[in-house]
């Protein structure tokens, strides 16, 4: 089996292995036997960069651009791993920082579509994706060649993609295809619609555990797959907790300014409004929309502010009259973090609430998260 990744063109060889247990039972599965690097991948990356940047053939800038892209990708991946490890440490439990708010907005409709097709809840699929790829649709496992959000095996992808109505080549990096194909494969392994998802019984369901073992590449070895299964279940349980409206007792009807360009009420200039303003009396409680770790501060425009950061977004709460959280505090959805106020540049008491994507450092409409 072959795979092209940022680290090169690799050939993966597998062998069949049979594991026998003391009770006489056995399981047969594929085991990675070796990896051969056929090419370091630079010629593909540099050809793309030369075309994208308009660089002349043979230019030393092409090699320099390749080095910058490669090193930036490695550095970002390492920094993200370190941040997620810090989140786990702050909460004391892997993935306990996650919540429904942190499901990337751009993938939500695909998860809902997959849920309708399979009966597997969107929050459970979110937990699976968190474990498999950390929400990276371009993720490639250098050891196995599996790729995408749901880590599809390249040997089985063409057949599964066609069966789901996708083109294996054109849709390989399509997040919707990755999610739908992954969900359809998982549901082929157990009866999702017959499982009771409302309570907590699903966590210990033997059929679900057997399906996850097969999905994770453990075959029938459910015992060996336990660490993998536990992480998927823990992440899914966390994503099951929905986002919370930041000012209890208010709603969309209390939004006085939406995300987008506006004429600033105190600066009297047209500028981007990177959030929503929710009107409420001074002293009204403000709660965390998500799980995450707190940072607090003050500046002349935002006034007293709290930032809560999870694995996907930064959630920013501004103009607070009082801050009721401390730096480094681990919070869950609904935890009180401050009181509505009018500190900083404000015409009256309200909460300015903004959401910034960590992977692009760009603001998004908070209503995409609060929906």
Automatic annotation (TrEMBL):
Annotated protein name in UniProt: M23 family metallopeptidase
Pfam families given in the database record: Peptidase_M23, SLT
Organism encoding this protein: Desulfofundulus salinus
Classification via InterPro entries: Cell_wall_metabolism_enzyme, Dup_hybrid_motif, Lysozyme-like_dom_sf, M23ase_b-sheet_dom, Transglycosylase_SLT_dom_1
Gene3D superfamilies reported for this sequence: 1.10.530.10, Glucose Permease (Domain IIA)
Residues covered by the M23ase beta-sheet core domain: 271-360
Domain Transglycosylase SLT: 112-192
Gene Ontology MF terms in the entry: metalloendopeptidase activity
SUPFAM superfamilies noted in UniProt: Duplicated hybrid motif (SSF51261), Lysozyme-like (SSF53955)
């Amino acid at each position: 089996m072959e795979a092209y990744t940022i680290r090169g063109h690799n050939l993966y060889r597998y062998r069949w292995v049979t594991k026998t247990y003391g009770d006489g039972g056995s399981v047969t599965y594929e085991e990675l036997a070796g990896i051969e690097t056929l090419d370091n991948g630079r010629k593909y990356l540099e050809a793309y960069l030369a075309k994208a940047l308009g660089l002349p053939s043979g230019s030393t800038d092409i090699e320099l651009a390749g080095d910058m892209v490669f090193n930036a990708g490695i550095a970002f991946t390492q920094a993200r791993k370190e941040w997620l490890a810090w989140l786990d440490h702050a909460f004391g439990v892997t993935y306990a920082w996650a919540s429904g708010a942190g499901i990337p907005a751009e993938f939500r409709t695909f998860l809902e579509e997959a849920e309708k097709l399979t009966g597997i809840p969107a929050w459970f699929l979110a937990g699976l994706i968190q474990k498999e790829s950390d929400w990276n649709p371009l993720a490639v496992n250098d050891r196995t060649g599996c790729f995408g959000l749901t880590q599809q095996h390249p040997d089985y992808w063409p057949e599964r993609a066609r069966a789901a109505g996708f083109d294996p080549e054109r849709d390989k990096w399509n997040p919707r295809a990755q999610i739908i194909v992954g969900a359809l494969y998982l549901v082929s392994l157990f009866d999702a619609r017959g499982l009771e998802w409302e309570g907590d019984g699903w966590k210990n369901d033997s059929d679900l555990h057997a399906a996850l073992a097969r999905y994770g590449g453990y075959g029938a070895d459910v015992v060996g797959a336990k660490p993998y299964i536990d992480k998927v279940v823990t992440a899914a349980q966390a994503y099951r907790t929905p986002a919370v409206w930041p000012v209890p007792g208010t709603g969309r009807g209390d939004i006085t300014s939406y995300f987008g360009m506006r004429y600033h009420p105190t600066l009297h200039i047209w500028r981007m409004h990177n959030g929503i303003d929710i009107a409420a009396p001074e002293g009204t409680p403000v709660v965390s929309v998500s799980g995450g770790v707190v940072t607090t501060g003050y500046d002349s425009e935002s006034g007293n502010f709290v930032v809560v950061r999870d694995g996907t977004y930064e959630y920013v709460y501004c103009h607070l009259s009082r801050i009721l959280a401390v730096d480094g505090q681990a919070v869950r959805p609904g935890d009180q973090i401050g009181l509505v106020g009018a500190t900083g540049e404000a015409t009256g008491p309200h909460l300015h609430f903004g959401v910034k994507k960590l992977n692009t450092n760009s603001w998004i409409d908070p209503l995409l998260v609060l929906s």
